[in-house]
Design a protein that fits this description.
Strand 7 and strand 8 form a beta hairpin. This protein has 212 residues and is an alpha/beta fold. The protein has six helices and twelve strands. The strands form two sheets. A seven-stranded mixed β-sheet has the order 10-5-9-6-8-7-11. The longest helix is centred in the first third of the chain and has 17 residues.
Length: 212
């Protein structure tokens, strides 16, 4: 396999959810390509200053700007997890509708990450079946790390992302409703109209394989 051109690769990520989910794949890429120095930033992908400073931005939807080129990477998926201590007190749900009777940890990221005490709609799917459940979010947080820590301490059921590594299981959590997952979010690598360096194209291919 040809190694990409060595040098710095500046990558902008939209929020902590994507940052944490892609971390294992980015670490594996850096190990496979030691000549590439990956510099990560976090912020709105369409912010002018951030766009000028980075080679690639990761977006949650195709760009509205026709001058931006979108490279579809794949789906970011989340599944449900809880601590054994929580499930010892509250029997695990057998169908998503039963989540309404459980304490849940809600993850709210991005510019609209406000949280209130009203029930939140969790969208889950299994094959062709789709369910929207109004759950009680006992905690609402804005970082995946906090959601994982709270779930690990047995406060409730959390929806957590993992790409290329069993991170929730490593935190001592166990799957809940293992046949179901949250509605996936499609990720895109966004670039300008100019040609991409070989190291940027290599990262796009790497992330696409990780998200397949």
């Amino acid at each position: 396999m040809d190694l990409p051109q060595a040098g710095a690769l500046r990558l902008n990520l939209p929020d902590a959810r994507v940052h944490d989910a892609l971390a294992p794949a980015l670490a594996a890429f850096a190990e496979q390509h030691p000549g590439v120095r990956v510099q990560l930033g976090q912020g709105g992908v369409e912010a002018g200053a951030a766009r000028k400073r980075c080679d690639l931005s990761i977006g949650l939807e195709p760009p509205a700007d026709s001058a931006r080129v979108a490279h579809r990477l794949g789906a970011l998926r989340a599944r449900l997890y809880a601590a054994p201590s929580y499930l010892a007190r509250r029997p695990a749900p057998e169908h998503p509708i039963e989540l309404a009777m459980h304490d849940c940890v809600g993850l709210h990221v991005g510019p609209q990450h406000g949280h209130d005490s009203r029930p939140a709609g969790w969208r889950l799917w299994c094959g062709s079946e789709r369910v929207v459940v109004m759950v009680r979010e006992r905690y609402g947080v804005d970082t995946p790390a906090m959601a994982m820590q709270l779930a690990a301490r047995g406060v409730g059921i959390a929806a957590l992302h993992a790409v290329g590594a069993a991170v929730p299981q490593n935190a001592g959590l166990v799957p809940v409703l293992p046949g179901w997952e949250m509605e996936p979010v499609t990720l895109y690598a966004l670039s300008g109209p100019r040609g991409l360096p070989a190291r940027a194209r290599a990262l796009i291919d790497w992330l696409a394989r990780a998200l397949a």
